[in-house]
Amino acid sequence: MEIIQLYTLLLIGVLSIGGFAYNRNVARASVRALRQSGPAETRWHSHPNYHGYLTGWSVALVGFGLFIIFNLVFPNQVALQTVSILLGTSLAGLLVFKKIAPAFPARIYTERFIKTTLLALSGLAILTTFGIVFSLIFESLRFFADVPLFDFLTGLKWSPQTAVRSDQIGSSGAFGAVPVLLGTFIIMAIAIGVAGPVGLMIAIYLSEYASRRMRAIVKPIIEILAGIPTVVFGFFALLTVGPAIRNLTDALGIAVPTQSALSAGVVMGVMIIPLISSLSDDVINAVPRSLRDGAYALGATKSETMKQVIFPSALPGIMAAFLLAISRAIGETMIVVMAAGRAANLTGNPFESVTTVTVQIVALLTGGPEFDSTKTLAAFALGLVLFAITLILNIIALRTVRKYREVSLA
Amino acid sequence: MTDKIKFKCRNVRVQYGDLEALHGIDIDIADRGVTAFIGPSGCGKSTFLRAFNRMNETIGGAKFSGQILMDGEDIYDPSLDPVLLRARVGMVFQKPNPFPKSIYDNVAYGPRIHGLTETQAELDSLVEKSLRRAGLWEEVKDRLTEQGTDLSGGQQQRLVIARAIAISPEVILMDEPASALDPIATARLEALIEELKTRYCIIIVTHSMAQAARVSDKTAFFYEGDLIEYDDTEKIFTNPDNQRTQDYITGRTG
Asked: Which is deepest, A34, A167, B76, B204, by most CB within 10 Å?
């Protein structure tokens, strides 16, 4: 892109604002003129502002439209592009100017413009999503041509390599995803085991027990946790929690590597505490006050009310909070890359080092990958599996939340 | 009606922050029968009602001073547990608030937390007795396991009355219990109150003059945090002493 094109873009902006101001003033002036000239009352269909808005929108649309068309169809015709944009936008402004009249429904056209713009923007987001999903699916299909889907999902050995020479050691790659999925599952389970109880208790404390002042102090502090970059959690896990666990287990006489599922899981659990506590707190607060009153008026204590009345009512929402937290934990990469190791051990032992889907994707795609080797394509297959899992969890979570909302509104 | 006194209130004041909602109320409430609290919105009648089972304490920032004696015992005595007080003073709210549990579990809730019954059979019969007293048994006896929230508004309100009765309270406080009900459900509720008043001390807050006149034996008129007039319902509605009471019940203020 040449520098003059940047100025052209700027020019389109200026022109559309100028067109808006000019035509609005013209419309205002003619409203005033009509009012003064005749006793016969003329009602304007649209407020003068709308004549202005319509001008602005049209100029912007024509300008940016021409800009994009020229870039695609006649690249490098910068002068022609600028000239035609100038002409096109002036024409658009002039057309609206000519139309300014009491009966002209500028308001309706403006609303249509706005609606179409909004639609186009949400369409863009949806298209992007579909684009990503389809590329995942197509690349995975290429992978499954090499490695059958069934073998991928049930294979017990993960050793993704492709031979450069047929006689080299370890030339036979193994693409069984079970150890990787198992590692993901173990770390997720540890993380939820940590974050679930702690986050839930925090939510209960904040919503039912804490004084207003305490809540105002505690809640923001917990939410700071959510703002810590995951890479910081990662080296915290690697440099602090991992060695601490190793020292502790050494004292007990068990040998545990510094990189273990446990340290990654625990730190990931800490990371998702605010997610669970904050969402659960909202859900518990949404339980109608009248239910609390009902329980208290029967002589229930705070904890009885919590356990027997509020918690059951809030349960679907709390479940949804947990599912969202699980999705987050499954998709998390940085902590596990740093703290869990890379060995694809088929193990249920949290003290061993394991690997996860996300870590393997990083390993497969970093360090100068060849883009059509089976090894690289395996990353897409793993990504697809990951996407499928989190998608399903999110759908379940959103459905439970919606169901819960219906109940609490009734 | 007996002349025995259930509550003796002296100089009752309730403050929310800097705002005083009740400016020193003195009133005696009879042991049986229905006492109605009437007055325009914001006059403090609901706040006063909630002082009788210390429900104001469940909202932060409410401060009580003065004295309420229940059978001669100070219910604001620091050594008295509000949980035990609320087991003796039941409450029914403006909006029916059954728990999202089965009809049976709603009624059984109070007896369970207070350990009132020992066997399942005892609990079953207590639930049945309470539902019968609340005039709901015939309608729900075949569907006790259904959700309490699936009942109609009027049924829900009778369900929460059954829930309150199940722990054998001495007093039932009702905060505009009919305001969310249609006329037919209201008539049923009023008939129920008529029946219950022989067993319990009932205090009812209501916005409906007609309702106060129909169900209550005594009526107290509140205005801007003061008790203006307290007398037999008939006297209040036919020949009040105070001009403001007169204006309110005839619809000139409020």
From this structure: B204
Whether residue A251 lies inside any domain: the answer is yes
Chain A: closest CA distance from residue B177 (Å): 13
pLDDT value for A410 = 41
Say which of B53, B100, B164 has its CB closest to residue A407: B100
3-state SS class at B245 = helix
CA A260 to chain centre: 29
Q: What is the pLDDT of residue A167?
A: 56
**Domain holding A264: CATH number?**
1.10.3720.10
Cβ contact A319:A304 at 8 Å: no
- d(C-alpha B95, C-alpha B153), whole Å: 9
A290 to B97: CB separation less than 8 angstroms, yes or no: yes
Q: What is the pLDDT of residue A160?
A: 77
| pLDDT of residue B180 exceeding 90 | no
Q: In what helix (H) or strand (E) does residue B227 lie, and over which residues does it extend?
A: strand B226-232
Q: Shortest CB distance from B60 goes to which of A211, A292, A312?
A: A211
Say what the pTM is: 0.75
CATH number of B5-249: 3.40.50.300
Q: Which residues of A touch B151 (CB under 8 A)?
A: none
d(CA A68, CA A81): 10
CB contact under 8 A, A300 and B164: no
Contact A288 B97 (CB under 8 A): yes
Are A290 and B164 in contact (CB < 8 Å)?
no
Domain assignment of residue A219, yes or no:
yes
CA distance A319 to A403: 12
Provide the Cα torsion A222, A227, A229, A234; round to 10°.
10
DSSP B9: E
CA distance linking residue A166 with residue A314, whole number of Å: 60
Contacts of B132 (CB under 8 A, 6+ apart): none
Domain range spanning residue A198?
Answer: 174-401
CA dihedral B54, B57, B63, B65 (to 10 degrees): 20
Average pLDDT over residues A4-13: 89
Tens-place pLDDT, residues A53-91: 999 999 999 999 999 888 888 887 888 888 899 999 999
Q: State how far residue A291 is from chain B, nearest Cα, in angstroms.
A: 6
Q: Given an 8 Å threshold on Cβ–Cβ distance, is B114 in contact with A288?
A: no
